[in-house]
Specification:
mainly alpha; elongated; about 55 residues; about 0% strand; single chain
Length: about 55
């Protein structure tokens, strides 16, 4: 899926914009979670241990 997205984005920038909307949605909850170590650690410690380098 990741490879297809990269090829599509290069071929049709428009498709990338549409996909980008979906990507940030799933990444947004993960990024803020990493910044909020105290909240993430309490909610999902197993997720915070690995995602947070």
């Amino acid at each position: 899926m990741t490879t297809s997205l990269a090829v599509n984005s290069e071929f049709k920038p428009f498709v990338y914009t549409d996909c980008e909307c979906s990507v940030p949605k799933a990444t947004e909850p993960r990024m803020p979670s990493a910044q909020n170590a105290p909240k993430s650690k309490r909610d999902r410690p197993h997720l915070t241990i690995k995602p947070i380098p």
